[in-house]
Every structure is written in C-alpha cells, then in structure tokens.
Amino acid sequence: MSAAKRVQQWATFARTWHIFDCKWQDPYQSAHVIKKYLMGMHKPIYHPMNDCGDVVLCINSREVALRGDDWRQRAYFHHTGYPGGATWTLAWEVHNKDPTMIIKKAVYRALKGNLQRRHTMQRLLIYPGEEVPEDIMQNVTNQIRQFRPVPTRLDHIPEDEVKQFPKVMEYPEDYVLK
Amino acid sequence: MSFLTRASCLAKNAILSTFVRSISTTNQLRLKQIHEYKEGSTLIVEATSVPSPNTELLVRAEKIKDLTPAEKPEHTCYMCALDLDVKHTDVLILSQFVRSDGCMLPRRITGLCRRQQKKIGKMVSMAQKAGLMINLTPSYCKKDPKQRYAYKKFNTYFDEKTIFMRNIPKPVDRFKR
Ligand SMILES: [Zn+2]
C-alpha cells in the first residue's frame, strides 16, 4: 500500500467534527440534517453495521426558533414510572429549564429506535451559547449549512439604509404622520 | 382662552424666537403642517403641505418596463402589480405600512386591495411577534424581545403559507352536491 493510499484510508475512516449553528433554526428540521452526519449517511462507505458516524457540535442552542405558536402548543411527556407520575411540560418551560434539551430530544426522535441510538447520541455535543471549550473547538473541520436564513432586526439595520431603501407605499396628500 | 393661548405663544416665542408653534416633536414628518402667525391683534392659523419622504424612492410597476402587463387587468393595486414575494422577515418593506407604534395602517391610507391588506397585516404581526420590528412598538415596550414574558421571549418563525390557510379545504372535507 502506497503512502497516498494509506493516508486516504485514514481519512476515509477518521471521525470528522462538524459544527452547526442553531441560531434561528427549527430544531425539528435541522435534526434530520444533523442525524445524517451523526450516522455517517453522507459518506459513500455508509452501512448500518459500519461505525462511520461523525461528531456534530451544536452551538447557540438557546437561540433555536420554533414555528408559529409551538412554544406554548408543544408538550413534552415524561413518566416517572409511579402511578400518577405522568407530566406534560410545554416547550418553553423545557427550554427555560435546559436550553439544550429541545435540540437533543429532536435529534433523538429523528434517529431510529435501535440499539445504536444511544451511542449515536453520544457523538452529539450541544452548547447553549457560543462558548465552546478550546480542546473541543480545535477538532472542528467542517460547518453544516443552516436550514433557514437568520433574519435581521430592523433596529440592527443602519438608519440611513432604512431611509434609502426603495419605498412601495405613498402616503395620501392630507395624511398626518404619527 | 385666546388670551391664554396668546400668552403661551408669546412665552414660547420669547424662548424660541420664532412664529412657528410646534404641535408635536415630529413636526418635520407631517405632510400637513400647521403654522400660526400673529399680525397685530389677529391670529392667523394656516396649514401647509410638506413633501412626502417616500416620493423620491417610490417603486411602481408602471415605471418598470418588464413588469408592465400587455393588457390592463381590472384589478391593479400597486402590490399586486409589483408581484413581490414578501416574507415576514422583510422588515424594510413591512415597516413602511406601520405607524411609529408598530400598528398597521388602515386600508384607506395604504391603498392596498383587500387581499394584500390582509396579507401585509398578518405579516406585520408575524414580524412583531418574532421581535424583528422591536423599535416600532408602543412607548411602554422594553424594546428587547429577550425581556418578554414566558414563551414570548424565545425566537419564533412563521410560515407565510399559513396566512390564507383557512380558505383551503382539507382533503377529508365533504361538500354538499
Ligand atoms: Zn391587489
């Protein structure tokens, strides 16, 4: 085996570290993207019996965006095992308690319920903010593309740019601006 | 009463040394401006019009050659004619349809057709709920989406397909023949 082939072999079976910025991303949509990288489904050598999954680093999980009124409509079920031990917690209450829980549960549900699921989940690292330990950050070599564009707030756009933006509405002659 | 007004006017004039009495702080933005002059013992109140800030930057479909339709359809409001794909995140467009407190302008001022007024109004409320136009809110607002109450403080996005969803019948719906 030549030196080039040997390096190709290492590169093929090495674990790659991906980073994913959850800012303004739907966790349930991005879970299906993250799942493919966790299981190694983006690789041509993928096989269910082949341990080729990668590590995914999710940052800014506090900034995830849920659709519509999902924050107060979506409930997370938990049962302690004792009689009357069932609880339903709303998504915003879960997020208040632990900002990494929503994305973790979303990826866990996106994965198939087999014996590999718990081991695959071990390769998912979630951080609520942008601060990641240095020893973890230096492994990262790839960034996963975001699902939705991050919207810009009107007060973050410079004022003269807002004024110079093309206008579609014209006020009537006798309108008194408020 | 008139004596009092004149007295206050005189007092203001003494400070500001002008004959223009300002009614509000945003006087420059008024399309109609109210001036008050004093000639001898008579008080003259007159309203003058001011050019609109939007006139120079106005975009209309008639001026764009590619968008002008060959035959003129019956219904043409300017937003339908422009045929823009406006999303709720396009705050630079949506902010033109609101007052300074973030409230949607009525149809007699916007001049939109009924469908567009509904669509723009819903997208304005979507942008407000998502906290994208937080500077265009009532004065008692804290101007920070993170300080809102309970579930409102977290990021939310909306799907524009849901605006006219109510009128689309579901496949399971049955109709009388
Ligand atoms: Zn129209």
Keywords:
heterodimer, A: 178 residues, alpha/beta, Ribosomal Protein L13p, Chain: A, 4-stranded parallel sheet, two-stranded antiparallel sheet, 8 helices, 7 strands, B: 177 residues, alpha+beta, 30s Ribosomal Protein S18, two-stranded antiparallel ribbon, 5 helices, 3 strands, 25% helix, 10% strand, disordered N terminus, binds zinc ion
Q: What percent of residues of chain B adopt helix (DSSP H or I)?
A: 10-25%
The rounded distance between the terminal residues' Cα atoms of chain B is 72 Å
Q: Please give the CATH class of the domain at 73-162 in chain B.
A: Few Secondary Structures
The major sheet of chain B is characterized as:
2 strands, antiparallel
Mean pLDDT of chain A: 92
Top-tier CATH class of chain A? Alpha Beta
Question: Which fold name fills CATH's third level, the topology of the domain at 73-162 in chain B?
Answer: 30s Ribosomal Protein S18
Q: How many strand segments of chain A?
A: 7
Main pleated-sheet profile of chain A: 4 strands, parallel
Strand content of chain B: 5-15%
Low-confidence stretches of chain B: 1-22, 24-30
What fold name stands as the CATH topology of chain A?
Answer: Ribosomal Protein L13p, Chain: A
The CATH superfamily name of chain A is Ribosomal protein L13
- Tally of contiguous helical segments of chain B: 5
Helices of chain A, by number, come to 8
Strand content of chain A: 15-25%
**How many E strands of chain B?**
3
Cα-atom Rg of chain B, whole angstroms?
Answer: 23 Å
Strand order in the largest sheet of chain A? 6-2-1-7
Short description:
Chain A has 178 residues and is α/β, with parallel strands linked by helices.
Task: Write up what this structure looks like.
The complex is a heterodimer of chains A (178) and B (177). Chain A is of the alpha/beta class. In chain A, 34% of the residues lie in helices and 16% in strands. Chain A has one domain: Ribosomal protein L13 (Ribosomal Protein L13p, Chain: A, Alpha-Beta Complex). Chain A contains 8 helices and 7 strands. Chain B has a domain at 73-162: 30s Ribosomal Protein S18. By secondary structure, chain B is α+β, with helices and mostly antiparallel strands. Chain A binds chain B through residues 24, 26, 63-72, 90-92, 95, 148-149, 151-155, 157, 162-178, and chain B through 26, 29-32, 49, 52-55, 57-59, 78-79, 82, 84, 89, 91-93, 95-97, 99-101, 108-111, 130-136, 143, 150-151, 154-159, 162. Bound molecules: zinc ion. Zinc ion (ZN) binds at residues 77, 79-80, 113, 116 of chain B.
